[in-house]
Amino acid sequence: MRTAMLKPVLLLVALGFSSVSPTSSSPRGSSDAAPLQHRRALQRPRSKAHAAPSFCRNPEQDIEALSSPRDICRMTLFSSPYDMAGYFIKDLDFYRPAAQTDDGVSPVDFEQLAQRVQEGERLFSATSHEPMLKVQHASDGSQHLVSRQLPAQTADGPMDYTKLVNPFIGTGATSNPGNVFPGASVPFGMAKIGIDVDTYAPAGYNDDLQAPVRGMSILHDTGTGSSSGSFGNFETMPVICTDDDYQLCPTTLDNRKRMRAKGKDVAMPGYFSTTLNNSIKMEATSTRRAGLIRYTFPQSALDKQQAKSPHLVMDWTNDLPGTFKGGHMRLNPLEGRVIFNGTYGSSFASGLFQYNAYACYDLHAGGRQALGKFGVWAGDRFGEDTKLEGEVTSDLVRNTIGGQPVQAGALVSWKKTMNAGSDKQVLIRVGVSYVSPEQACANAEEEIPEFDFTKVVKQSQALWNEKLNRIQIANDTDPKIAQLFYTSLYRGFLSPNNATLEGQAQFLNTPSPYFDGLYCTWDTFRTFFPFLSLTSPHDYAEIVETYIDGWRKLGAIPECRANNVPGLTQGGSDGTNVLADFAVKYAKAGLPVDIEELYTALRSDAYTNAKEWNNGGRQIGAYVKYGYIPFAVYDRETTGRQTREGSRTLEYVYNDFGIRNVALMLGKQDDAQDLTKRSYFYKNVFDKNTKKFGFSNYVQKRYTNGTFAHVDPTTCSPIDPSNKPCSLQQENVYGVYETSSAEYSLFVPHDFAGLIRLLSNGDKEEFIKRVDNFFDRGLYYSGNEPSFQTPIVYTYANEPTRSVDRVRQVVFENFNTTNAGLPGNDDNGAMATLLNFHLLGLYPVPSTREYIIVSPFIPSYTLNNAVLGSVTVTARNFDKTSLKKTIPQGARAYVARVFINGEEQSSRCKILHEQLFPGGGKHTDVVFEMSANKAAANSCGPGGEKDLPSSLSTGGFDRF
Ligand SMILES: *[C@@H]1O[C@H](CO)[C@@H](O)[C@H](O)[C@H]1NC(C)=O
Ligand SMILES: *[C@@H]1O[C@H](CO)[C@@H](O)[C@H](O)[C@H]1NC(C)=O
Ligand SMILES: *[C@@H]1O[C@H](CO)[C@@H](O)[C@H](O)[C@H]1NC(C)=O
Ligand SMILES: *[C@@H]1O[C@H](CO)[C@@H](O)[C@H](O)[C@H]1NC(C)=O
Question: Whose Cα sits closest to atom 9 in ligand 2?
C-alpha cells in the first residue's frame, strides 16, 4: 500500500465511516485542531529535525527529569548516535561544550565517537548477560559495513544468521516510511511485542526520538501504512510515582508518555529493548501467543522522585487507532494476575468491522515478585484523571457520543521485586488470545511455563535460525548485501501472524490453520508468496489453507484481512493469484491442501458477482459483460467503490490468468478456455488515442458505450505535482490506483508479447524507448507495489542486460541498511521479498512456475526446500565491482550462459520452478556464467522467441 501518501483521515471520512472522525486519532496524542495537517507534519519529522537540532533547542518536551537545556544536550550526547549521526556530525560544535563538561556519565571520547559514526562502524550496546544487537546507524543514508565476514558455522548447529538481521531497517521516520515493526516476534508470531510511540507509526515504532513512548504493547502488524496504526492493544508503561503516591502516578497517555534516551533502542530477532530518558529500561521477548517483558528501574531514578516502588500502568482501552468499544477488566491481587477483555475496531475500515482481543498478565513472576498497591484508573484529555486504589474490576460498553474512547486500565506497584545489581527489576508474563481471557492465560502458561527471559530469547533465536538457514549464501558475499538479504529474509517470515486456534466469529474452532494480517494481498501476491514458494512449502500450505478457509466461511477469498476482519480491496481479488501460485508449484507435492477445493474457491471468485466487492470478491458481472470494468456504470447487482476502472481491469485479468492456469492443470477445459479469453481483456482498457511523450496507447477508464474518458497518463505518478487523491477516495477519478496509467500500462505480466504488439506494433526497440522514457522522466515510483515488476520488463523485449542495469540502479537508489533503507511501506514483507528476489538475480511471474533471470548480487546461494530438495545457484566469475548503481565498464554483471546440472540451457532469461526443484529431494546445481560482454549477453539466447520469457499470446503457459 502507499498509504503514507494517502491522506488517511480524509480517506476514511470520504468513505463514509462516520465513526472515524478526525478526533478519533487523538488518543495518539495529536492535537484536536487540524489533525490532518498535524499528522502530515508528523510524517516528515526527519527533514524538519535536520534543519533545527531540536533536541537542544526545544527543551520543553517532557524531559522534566533533566533540569536544564544543557543537561538535555548532554543526554543527547551520551547516548550512542543511533541513526542520529546526521545530527551529530552536523551539530558537532553545538554539542561539544556539554560533552566536555560532563561528569556524571562515563567519559566518552567525542572526537573518536564522531569519527566512528562517520566510518559507519557499529557501536556495541551490550550488557553483561543479555544478547544485544550492535546498533546500526548511518550519517548520510549510505550503506555501511556490518561485519567483515559471515558468521562462522558452529560445529553442531546451523549458522547464526540472526547476527545479520537488523530489525531497524525500515523504521526510519521518513516522508515515505517503511513502517517496519522492529520488536520481539517469533516467525509468523501473533504476539509482536514492542513499544508504541506517539506519532505516525502504524507498527507502533519509529526511530523519531522526538516521539515519546506511550508503552509496550503486544499485538502489531508490520510494514502496513494504515492511517493511524494497527493493534497496539494492552500497553504497559513503567512509571515512577513521586513519593510512591498512587494518586500522583501518571496514567493517561498524555501524562505517562516519555521520551527515549538516545541510542538505546536495540533489537535482534526475538528481542527488543529501549531505555527511557529517566533510565528505565524496557525489554521484551516472545513466543507465538505470549511474551515476557522486563522493566528495570535504576535506584537512582527512583531516588530522584523519593520513590521506592516500581509502578506499572496497564492500559486496557487505548489501541493505536483509538477504537475501544467496550469489555471487561479484572485484577486478582493475590495471584498477581490481570486480565483484559476488549472489543476494538480494525485498522483498515474501523467503522465497519470489529474484533475482540484478550490479554492475561502475570505480575508475580512465579513468586519471585509480589504486588504492593493495586487498583484501576481512568482518564481523558479533558480533566478526568482518576485512580481508584483497591478496586479490581471495570466494565465498559461502547460510548456512542464523541470520537474518543475513555482511557482506562490497571495501576500496580510491587513491594517485592527482583534485583539487578542495585536496581529494581520486574518481569511480567503476558498471554494473548482472540478467543477468551482464559485462553490468553492458558497460552502464557503453555508457551512460557518458566519465567526465564534469556531462555525465551534463545528459543526465539533458534526458531529464526531455522527459517534463515533455508537460504545459505556464500561466505564472501558483500557484508552489506548479506545484511540486506538476511534482514529481508527475516521480514519475509515476520508476517502474516499465525493465529491458529485463535480464530473468532466464523473462524472460532475452525480446524484449519488461521493467519491474520493478510494485509493486503494486493501487496503480497507479487513477491511475498512466490518467495515463500522457494523454500517454505509447509508454511505456504498453511497460509493457503487459511485463504481457502476464508472463502469457505465468508464466501470470498480474503483480500485484506487485518485484525481478524476483512479490510478494503484495492484492486482485484489477489488471493486468487496466491492460490494459483501455490497450486501450480505444489499440487503434486502431497501437502495438506485439497487442490480440487482450492479450485472451487478460485472458480467461485471467477464466476460470482460479489454483492459487495469492497471487502472481497469481484465485480464480475459488469467486467464480463463489457470486457472491462466500465466507468460511470449503474451496476444494479453489486456494490462497491466505483473507481480505478483501468487498474482494476488489469488486476482482474491477472486474477483470471492465475485461475486459468489451475483450470488447465486440472483439465477443466471449458473454464480454461473461457478464462484464457478473459486473460486478454487487458487490451480493452488501452486507448490508442491517448498520447504522451511521443508514445501512444495508455490504460484509460472507459464508458459503457466504449468511449474512453481521457486522463493524462502521468496523473498519480511521482511527477504529478498536485498531490491528488489516487487511492480509495471517491475523488480518485483517474481510472488507476496509487500509481500512474503510464506505470499500469506496463502491467501485463502474463502477456508481454501481446503488450508489446499493442504498444508499439511489436517493435521491441520502440518498447524499450518507452520504458527508458518512463524511467528517465521520473515516472517510476519505487515505493509501491505496482512498480515491482517494471525494472525487468526489458527482458521481454529481448534485452536482458537493460534489466540488469535497471535493477542495479533501483536497488542502490532505494534500498540500504539504514533505518531509512526502504522506499515505502514494507507491506508485510512485500518490499523485503522484492529486494531479495533482486539480490538472488531472479524475478517471479506469480501464478506460474517461471522466474526471470536477472543478475545475482550474491556470488552463490543454496535454497533449501524441505519438500522438493535443494538448489545451489552459482554466479560463476562473480564480480563484486558490478555491485554499483551504475555498473562500471568491464564489470562482469551479465548472465552469458546458464547451466543446469552442467547442461547448458538455450535461454538465459528464464528458469522454471521445476528446473530449480525437480522434486524428490534432489539437489540441483545451477550456474550463471557472468560476463562483462554486454553486447554478447544482450539477448535471451540463440533460440529467438522461444528463449524469451513466456507470453500467453505466443504459446507460453500452455501446460501446468
Ligand atoms: C468480555 O467482557 C464483556 C463485558 O463484560 C462480556 O460481556 C463478555 O462475555 C466478555 N467476553 C469474554 C470472552 O470473556
Ligand atoms: C568460505 O567458504 C569456503 C568454501 O566453502 C571455505 O573454504 C572457507 O574456509 C570459508 N571461509 C570462511 C572465512 O569461513
Ligand atoms: C502456526 O501455529 C500452529 C499452532 O501452533 C503450528 O502448528 C503451525 O506450524 C504454525 N505455522 C507456521 C507457519 O508457523
Ligand atoms: C459515450 O458516453 C459518454 C458519456 O455519456 C459520452 O460522453 C460519449 O460521447 C459517448 N460516446 C458515444 C460514441 O456516443
Answer: 475
For the ranges 219-223, 503-507, 723-727, 883-887, the lowest mean pLDDT is seen at 723-727
* Binding site membership of 633 for ligand 4 (Cβ less than 6 Å): no
Q: Please tell me if the CB atom of residue 826 comes closer than 6 angstroms to any atom of ligand 3.
A: no
Please give the distance, rounded to the nearest whole angstrom, from the Cα atom of residue 683 to the centre of ligand 4: 20
Give the pLDDT of residue 228: 79
Q: What angle do CA 911, 917, 919 make, to 5 degrees?
A: 145
**Ranges of CATH 2.70.98.10 domains, the chain:** 3-455
Which set of grid coordinates corresponds to residue 91?
A: 551539530
Q: Which fold has domain 3-455?
A: Beta-galactosidase; Chain A, domain 5 (2.70.98)
498 Cβ inside 6 Å of ligand 3? yes
Tens digits of per-residue pLDDT, 574-607?
Answer: 999 999 999 999 999 999 999 999 999 999 999 9
**What is the third-level CATH fold of 479-608+617-954?**
Glycosyl hydrolase family fold (1.20.1610)
Q: Which ligand is nearest to the CA of 473?
A: 2
For 145-184, what is the HEC assignment?
CCCCCCCCCCCCCCCCHHHHCCCCCCCCCCCCCCCCCCCE
Q: List residues bridging with 75 in a β-sheet.
A: none
Query: What tens digit of pLDDT does each residue of 489-540 get?
Result: 999 999 999 999 999 999 999 999 999 999 999 999 999 999 999 999 999 9
% of the chain exceeding 90 in pLDDT? 80
What would the pLDDT profile of 618-652 be if each residue is shown by its tens digit?
A: 999 999 999 999 999 999 999 999 999 999 999 99
Ligand 3 centre to CA of 361 (Å) is: 23
E-strand stretches of 810-849: 842-844
**Which residues make Cβ contacts (< 8 Å) with residue 555, sequence separation at least 6?**
604, 608, 616, 617
What's the predicted TM-score (pTM) here?
0.87
Q: Is 705 in the pocket of ligand 4 (CB under 6 A)?
A: yes
Task: Specify the domain boundaries for CATH 1.20.1610.10 within the chain.
Answer: 479-608+617-954
Residue 872 near ligand 2, beta carbon < 6 Å: no
